[in-house]
Design a protein that fits this description.
Helices cover 54% and strands 12% of the residues. It is built from seven helices and three strands, in the order αααβααββαα. The protein has helices at residues 7-14, 20-30, 32-47, 62-73, 75-85, 108-113, 116-121; strands at 52-55, 87-92, 96-101. It holds the Pfam family KH_NucS_shadow.
């Protein structure tokens, strides 16, 4: 299960009445490690002159790795996080998360980061099964 959804939120969802703030709060409560990683890169991206900030530390356990994968593999969760933090998230390997300034999306640095070449360059035998 990706999210721990409170009964009241599930009831509102069944009638089509969930706003972004409620959804993001559910994500925050359900996936605390993923939330912490995304919060950290989003905050750093807002305070640096670089086009992005990234987090490349492997998660401490499979539980945390699973949270990160669930958060970034779900279009709804990833989109909610991007809207909440005002960034574009990019993901490599099983743990490298980057938050790009929206103005950088489509630019050379962003295109390089999300390219197949960058993905291949960021592989190593240790990361094969991550």
């Amino acid at each position: 299960m990706s999210l721990d959804v409170p009964a009241a939120l599930l009831e509102r969802a069944e009638s089509g009445q969930v706003d972004d703030a409620e959804f993001v709060a559910c994500v925050r409560a359900s996936l605390p490690y993923a939330w912490a990683v995304v919060s950290e890169v989003a905050a750093r991206s807002a305070t640096t002159s670089a086009e992005f900030a990234d987090h490349a530390v492997p998660p401490p356990s499979e539980k945390e790795r699973g949270e990160l994968l669930r958060a970034l593999a779900s279009d709804a969760i990833r989109g909610g996080l991007e809207r909440h933090f005002g960034v574009k998230l990019a993901f490599q390997n099983c743990h490298r998360v980057a938050a790009f300034r929206l103005s950088a999306v489509g630019g050379e640095t962003y295109q390089d980061f999300i390219s197949p070449v960058a993905q291949i360059r960021n592989q190593s035998p240790e990361l094969r099964d991550c």
